[in-house]
Specification:
The protein is about 0% helix and about 45% strand. It is mainly beta. It has 2 domains: about 5-110, no CATH class; about 115-160, no CATH class.
Length: about 160
């Protein structure tokens, strides 16, 4: 498989995994477990400061020395929150750069970047059966709508 468009940078390293991949925090704040391939044929490596590339798993280059791990998507970066694994889409046609999964069935999937003119208003993203339970403004121009709904009899929460 080839490389992906998401990198993980921090602790003096920049990790470029092969697809499909999963990043998970390993024992110690500067260690990352990188898994590539399918469940039937996974290859795994634990990477930390001073590590070298692992063939067909991850290329390791010099990266930012200060700060914790951050996801790099093109010219943009976002934090890697504790408790979340980072996974590539499983479908090569999926345009989502990565998914962040938590053990409690929570998922974050960053989208964009997009200009504000191309974004739908949060109210337009409310699906049948969902209701707005909160609103907030981030900065001067980011309107967030928090939604609640039930799925398979369990309560769910979503924010746009």
């Amino acid at each position: 498989m080839g490389h992906v468009f998401v990198r993980l940078a921090g602790h003096g390293l920049r990790l470029v995994p092969h697809w499909p991949y999963r990043f998970a925090r390993a024992a110690g704040p500067s260690l990352v477990e990188v898994t590539v391939g399918s469940r039937q044929g996974e290859r795994r490596a634990v990477i930390g400061p001073g590590a070298a590339s692992v063939r067909d798993v991850v290329d390791v280059d010099e990266g930012p020395v200060t700060g914790d791990w951050r996801l790099e998507v093109g010219p943009f970066t976002l934090c890697w929150p504790d408790g979340l694994e980072v996974q590539s889409p499983q479908d090569p046609a999926d345009p989502t750069p990565c998914y962040l999964f938590a053990s409690e069935h929570a998922m974050i999937f960053p989208q964009g970047p997009a200009t504000l003119e191309r974004l739908a208003a949060p109210d337009a993203l409310v699906a049948p059966g969902q209701r707005i339970v909160g609103r907030r403004l981030l900065g001067e121009d980011i309107d967030v709508a928090e939604l609640a709904y039930e799925h398979d009899g369990a309560p769910w929460w979503q924010a746009h």
